[in-house]
Amino acid sequence: MLSHRILSVLLLLSVLLTIQVNCEDYVHDYDDDDYFINDKTDEIASEKLLNIQKVQYSTYNRSDTYLSSTSYNSKGMAPLYNITNMVIDLFVDDDEPIPRGYIVVKEKKFEVGPKVRDHEWGDLIKKYWAILLVVLIIVLVAVFMPIVGLCFCCCRCAGACGGRTQPFDKKGDTCRRFFFGLFLVACASAMVFGVVVAFVTNSYLQHGVENATTVARYGINDTTLYLRRTSIHIRHILVDNYNELKTDLEKILNDTGNVVIEKLANESKAIELVRLNNLVKNLNNIQNDLEIMKDETKNLRIRASQLSDGLRGVKRELLTQLSKCNTKDCKAVKEKYDIGRLDTNGIDYNQLPDMTNIINGVQELIRNADLAEAIAHSEEKLKQLSDSINSKIDSNKPSVENALAETGRSLHQVSDDISNVVEEFVGHAHNYGYPNLKKADDYLHKYGIYRYYAGLIISSVLLFVLLCLTFGLMCGVCGKRPDGYGDDCCNKGAGGRFLMCAVAVIFLTVSALLIIALALFLVGIFVRRGVCDPLSDPSRDQIFKEYIDPLIDLYELFPTKLKKSSHLKNSIVKPIRISEVISACHENKTIYSVLGLEKIYDVNDIQDYPNKYSIDAKINKFIENIKIPPQTLLTEDTKKSILELAESPLRDFDEYKFLDNLTKNITYYNLAGLADQLEETAKKIQTSSNSEIRVSLMNQALILRSFQKELVDPMIAGTDNMLAIARNLEKTLKNDAPNFHDAMMQTLKDIQQAETFFKEEATDFVKSIAETLLTGFKEQFTDYLNMVANETQYEIGQCGPISQVYNATLVGACKQVIDPFNGFWTGLVWCLALFFPTLILAVKLSTLYQKSDPYPGPLVESGPKNRKRNKKRDRRSERHAEYYEDASPSTGHHRDARYNDMAPKNWDGAPPRYQNPPVAPSAEYERPPPYYYPGAQSDHD
What we know:
Layout: H1 2-29, H2 43-50, H3 78-91, E1 103-106, E2 109-112, H4 114-117, H5 122-127, H6 129-157, H7 173-268, H8 271-281, H9 283-324, H10 328-336, H11 356-367, H12 369-394, H13 397-478, H14 492-536, H15 542-551, H16 560-563, H17 578-586, H18 591-594, H19 609-612, H20 615-624, H21 636-646, H22 655-661, H23 671-684, H24 691-734, H25 740-760, H26 762-794, H27 800-849, H28 867-884
Antiparallel strand pairs: 1-2
Helix pairs in contact: 1-7, 1-13, 2-26, 3-27, 6-14, 7-12, 7-13, 7-26, 7-27, 8-12, 8-25, 9-11, 9-24, 12-21, 13-14, 13-27, 14-27, 21-25, 22-24, 23-24
């Protein structure tokens, strides 16, 4: 599955690289329509001169939610997994797990090394002697344990090995019972850990196996999402951003001619001829403006006179009425307003100039057709020059626009190809990935449960042994001695039988468990060191560096078109190794960097296309063809017309007289505000004696309000209109000169300078303007190429999501499956190791638990200490043992009569007990318990 993901990402980036191939082929095909140059110009200067702004590209910002997660909860088993991994590290070398010379990779195939052919196994045995020793020991133990168990069983059946014990404790048996029991308790307690580990890890392992397909599905979903988002990102930069660039470049192309003409006109001062012609064309408008000013001046004078007379009457009436009123409101009005100053603001509208003569002069100029014709003729020459320049500049516009459109179609096609490839891989994921996962789910559902049951059976065997030991210890420690009556089911004898049951299960299962543990141990070591460790750190692992990397070269998976392209820097390309790809992907690098495509093709090379295909020379040649012929803009008729215009009555227009004598403050007080104050004061006067005053104030308020509406407001509007016209005429007629006459003379001088400029400097200036424009054009395209290169190297297809998928897969496989797998055999081995001391201790304790009577004391140990003592003691011991044996014919011999017990045996095989005496005394002797006979006196001599 990992290989499929790598191949998907690889092909996607290969298609991305094909963009560069297509772009280069495209530039080569359109070498006659090149449109950018390579010389670096001052970007700030070009923007300031021509106002060429950088294209504001939209950015691709989209956050997606990926399902793969590296979160993992060991649920308290992390210390066990760490210890297991440490144990594995003791058996396997981290630096070089496979000694050199045994396996080699030649021509992308695994082959045996020279040491295998020469049968030199020393290095391999030296490295893995510990594992071989473990295997040998476990195999030997597994082979001999059934033999040992059979021998032990036979020994028990023969009455030895604890099969038949004396009823009395020996001296020290109590101490032995205590210490053997203590040691067995320790072993059983330690075995609890192994049993718990076996059950828990078996459950965790099953959960990890069942969750494996879910992790795989998440990985496929995330990879699919990543590929689609990468495809959308590529489409955004190749289609959307290019359309933004194309729109801006087309605007520059369309504006190039106008900008050049405008800059030329301004620089040469020929723009003054255009301004002069516009002035002549607008003489009618100038006449209309002068007439408006004349009419407004007349209206202002009339309204000012009416307002002054009316305000004098209001002022007189207010002074009379307010002097009669003694209320505080009236006093407040008198304090706030100085009624004596209620008048116009002292503006003398008679100071405004009369526009009649100027208007008449303008009318004469309008009637002079030769004036307009001469100036228009000169402007027409300038227009013809502009059209000629514009035609030369625009001659290449169609080809450039076609090139832009063709480039856009090519990039759009590349984007479509990438989308098709991505969708193809997405289809493969759906057509092959999910069906295979469905099959895996079916197999796991059908057969995976058997593995779980097998682990459960193994764990149950361990648990059964532990339970037998536990019950045996409980009965042995807490139960009574066996008395033969069977009245206590949990006596020491039952404890011994539980222990022997555990011994029997151990002997029956230990060999199989050892073989299973050995197989799990070897598989766990191989998978952990051969799969998990290399995948966790492929850049420094020997297996990856020496065996996987030489076996797989990702370059061979690149498309044939790319491998045969002339872009290859060298005939032999350095192989692209998987370990390098994985390490780069973990650093969240782009696909371009992850697959190391800079070793094959440097995306920055696209910025050298202008030089590589001589585009600069072609554009410079185009600029050299731009030539401005000398121009005669100022004819004698034009010069005469300008002088005539300079001496016209327009020279008498003095706008400052209007600007200085006009103001919006027509009255000293705001009449509407004063009217409101008078109405408010009148409403507060309540006494009948002041009713006349109240009526008078109301009337004067109405009069003031009518003055404001009928006189003041129109005067303000007229003033605003006249001021605006005066400023506009000042700008039109004087053009920053002191007066109209000087402005016309400066215009005549500027036009003469324009002719000189066209003769000497125009060609170079137009070339510089055209070059600056084309440089700005080139800078826009270069910025786009830089953005493509930067996005390709640092933005498009950042491998963080794929790294997340990789890590999630590694966690799902190693953390959730391999670690519990190794933990299972660790718990099993732990219990098996405890089985061997458990066997010895259980057998010993079982024998001790079967004894029914305590130690009888030192009597049996008394007697002279001589050399014959040992022999006599041995014979006495034998006779003593025979005394307690059943004297049946099956014994095969007859005991000496003098040692026979004359007392009747009435217990019928049961423990000896007192007998009820008969009613009549009997002369026959019946020995009381415990029927101990120390022997004849001669035996003690």
